[in-house]
Design a protein that fits this description.
Layout: H1 32-35, H2 60-66, H3 82-87, H4 102-110, H5 117-129, H6 139-148, E1 157-161, E2 170-173, E3 178-185, E4 201-207, E5 216-221, H7 224-227, H8 231-241, E6 249-252, E7 255-257, E8 266-271, E9 274-282, E10 288-296
Antiparallel strand pairs: 1-10, 2-9, 3-8, 3-10, 4-5, 4-9, 6-7
């Protein structure tokens, strides 16, 4: 039976197609109605779309696209941020569904099973393929760099000193305990063309303190063959580090070095993390030039 309209006329009413349009007063891509749903949003302010109001790594526009709550990092309450779930969507995650079994999925990934297994392997493959992008280096590169830095410092402070004057170079030890050869060379410098080497240097080695107390005195050396400690160990350290010998030699770097320097102080100390200074002066007050050096000694097998 054909229906009647409100005026009593029989027949089918005329239907119209209506397009429902979202109003967007600020042209930011976020409908007014959507912005009015959430506290802090303003349909008259265009900056909303690019913001990440809840800090979940999704912009507010992406929250609108994905149907997530722009005021909550974790819209579905499964302890996984919305941004992370979008990133891991191909592994079954959805920011609008409870994925509270996430920890179990991580655990199975560690054993090479479960939905995270491929993700873990993909990540490993990416890092291996582009190690420099991740500041990673091979064992050979690390060993080469460590070897190049073995002589941690050569404090070559060649200066003139005399009277009551002192020269005070310093150095810092970082990392593990290191065995250090420390010298203040005077007379031997004559073999290298220094016209006025310091005839009789002496030094004191201190470790700085940071508790308001004076620095700790570690050593006071005058003549390396007398009070420097193990003479043979010092000679071996000189040779291993490539430093010039204090003994007379027929050839070093292509020339004879005849001076027998027994007056310069030298010693070997094991030093841990800290800041150190070497205070050098002339024993008799005479003026001359002195070269202060410190070398890390490489132990056998390193």
């Amino acid at each position: 039976m054909t229906p009647f309209d409100a005026a009593g006329n029989q027949g089918w009413p005329a239907f119209k197609t209506v397009n429902i349009l979202w109003l967007d007063d600020d042209d930011d891509g976020l409908p007014n109605q959507w912005e009015e749903l959430y506290e802090g949003f303003d349909p008259q302010v265009a900056d909303d779309a690019n913001a990440d109001s809840d800090g979940d790594e999704l912009s507010d526009f992406e929250e609108f696209q994905n149907g997530t709550d722009p005021t909550k990092k974790d819209s579905d309450g499964d302890n996984v941020f919305d941004g992370a779930e979008i990133t891991l969507a191909e592994y079954g995650f959805d920011p609008n569904e409870d994925n509270s079994d996430i920890l179990a999925k991580f655990e199975t990934a560690a054993s090479g099973t479960g939905i995270f297994a491929n993700l873990v392997q993909d990540t490993i493959d990416t890092v291996v393929a582009m190690p420099n992008e991740y500041n990673l280096f091979t064992e050979t590169q690390v060993e080469t760099a460590a070897q190049a830095a073995r002589t941690f410092i050569n404090v070559s402070a060649r200066v003139g000193v005399g009277g009551e004057e002192v020269v005070i170079p310093g150095f810092t030890i970082v990392g593990s305990t290191k065995k250090i050869l420390i010298r203040a060379v005077g007379p031997k410098l004559a073999d290298f063309g220094v016209e006025n080497p310091l005839a009789d240097p002496i030094f004191w080695i201190y470790q700085a303190r940071f508790d308001g107390q004076p620095a700790d005195l570690l050593a006071n050396i005058d003549d390396w063959t007398v009070d420097g400690g193990d003479v043979d160990a010092i000679k071996a350290a000189v040779e291993s580090t490539g430093a010039f010998p204090l003994d007379p030699v027929e050839d070093f770097q292509g020339a004879p070095r005849p001076t027998d320097d027994t007056k310069s102080p030298a010693t070997i100390l094991e030093l841990g993390l800290g800041v150190y200074t070497v205070v050098v002066k002339s024993v008799d007050g005479s003026f001359g030039e002195v070269l202060v050096e410190a070398y890390e000694i490489e132990e056998e097998g390193e």
